[in-house]
Amino acid sequence: MALHIKDARAHELARELAQRRGTTLTQAVTEALSEALDRSTPAATPKLERLKEISRRAAGYRFWMDARLTRSSGTSIRPS
To answer: Are 51 and 57 spatial neighbours (Cβ–Cβ below 8 Å)?
Structure first.
Protein backbone atom coordinates (compact mmCIF):
# COMPACT_ATOMS: atom_id res chain seq x y z
CA MET A 1 0.00 0.00 0.00
CA ALA A 2 1.08 3.54 -0.64
CA LEU A 3 0.43 6.81 1.12
CA HIS A 4 1.38 9.80 -0.95
CA ILE A 5 1.79 13.03 0.97
CA LYS A 6 1.34 15.85 -1.49
CA ASP A 7 1.30 18.67 1.05
CA ALA A 8 4.67 20.32 1.63
CA ARG A 9 3.90 21.22 5.26
CA ALA A 10 2.72 17.68 6.08
CA HIS A 11 5.84 16.24 4.50
CA GLU A 12 8.05 18.69 6.41
CA LEU A 13 6.39 17.78 9.71
CA ALA A 14 6.71 14.05 9.03
CA ARG A 15 10.37 14.44 8.11
CA GLU A 16 11.08 16.50 11.26
CA LEU A 17 9.33 13.94 13.47
CA ALA A 18 11.26 11.11 11.88
CA GLN A 19 14.52 12.97 12.46
CA ARG A 20 13.73 13.71 16.10
CA ARG A 21 12.75 10.12 16.78
CA GLY A 22 15.50 8.61 14.70
CA THR A 23 13.03 6.61 12.61
CA THR A 24 11.89 6.34 9.04
CA LEU A 25 9.15 8.56 7.60
CA THR A 26 6.84 5.56 7.51
CA GLN A 27 7.43 4.69 11.13
CA ALA A 28 7.07 8.32 12.25
CA VAL A 29 3.76 8.74 10.43
CA THR A 30 2.47 5.37 11.66
CA GLU A 31 3.33 6.16 15.27
CA ALA A 32 1.92 9.69 15.07
CA LEU A 33 -1.36 8.42 13.65
CA SER A 34 -1.55 5.67 16.26
CA GLU A 35 -0.92 8.17 19.07
CA ALA A 36 -3.57 10.52 17.67
CA LEU A 37 -6.08 7.68 17.54
CA ASP A 38 -5.26 6.69 21.13
CA ARG A 39 -5.94 10.25 22.30
CA SER A 40 -9.30 10.36 20.57
CA THR A 41 -10.71 7.07 21.82
CA PRO A 42 -14.33 6.86 22.96
CA ALA A 43 -13.03 6.04 26.46
CA ALA A 44 -12.73 9.79 27.03
CA THR A 45 -16.43 10.26 26.24
CA PRO A 46 -17.82 9.07 29.61
CA LYS A 47 -15.50 11.50 31.39
CA LEU A 48 -16.62 14.33 29.14
CA GLU A 49 -20.28 13.49 29.66
CA ARG A 50 -19.75 13.37 33.44
CA LEU A 51 -18.07 16.77 33.37
CA LYS A 52 -20.91 18.19 31.29
CA GLU A 53 -23.44 16.85 33.80
CA ILE A 54 -21.51 18.36 36.71
CA SER A 55 -21.34 21.66 34.84
CA ARG A 56 -25.11 21.64 34.17
CA ARG A 57 -25.86 20.89 37.82
CA ALA A 58 -23.45 23.55 39.08
CA ALA A 59 -24.96 26.13 36.73
CA GLY A 60 -28.31 25.52 38.41
CA TYR A 61 -27.06 26.59 41.83
CA ARG A 62 -27.64 30.18 42.76
CA PHE A 63 -25.40 30.67 45.76
CA TRP A 64 -25.71 34.43 45.77
CA MET A 65 -29.45 34.09 46.51
CA ASP A 66 -28.77 32.36 49.80
CA ALA A 67 -28.66 35.11 52.43
CA ARG A 68 -26.89 32.75 54.80
CA LEU A 69 -23.78 32.85 52.68
CA THR A 70 -21.77 35.73 53.99
CA ARG A 71 -18.15 36.27 54.66
CA SER A 72 -16.92 36.18 58.22
CA SER A 73 -16.88 39.99 58.14
CA GLY A 74 -20.63 39.93 57.60
CA THR A 75 -20.49 41.23 54.06
CA SER A 76 -22.40 39.48 51.33
CA ILE A 77 -20.53 37.43 48.76
CA ARG A 78 -23.07 38.26 46.06
CA PRO A 79 -21.51 39.26 42.77
CA SER A 80 -21.65 43.00 42.07
So the answer is: no
Q: pTM of the entire structure? A: 0.50
CA distances from 65 to 35, 60, 69 (A): 47, 12, 8
C-alpha to C-alpha distance for 57 and 21, rounded to whole angstroms: 45
Domain that holds residue 38: 8-65
Give the number of domains in the chain: 1
Instruction: Give tens-digit pLDDT for 12-53.
Output: 999 999 999 999 999 999 999 999 987 777 766 788 888 888
Q: Rounded to whole angstroms, what are the CA distances from 12 to 6, 24, 29?
A: 11, 13, 12
Q: For 1-80, where are the alpha helices, taking DSSP H only?
A: 8-21, 25-39, 44-60
Q: Per this entry, what is the length of the chain?
A: 80
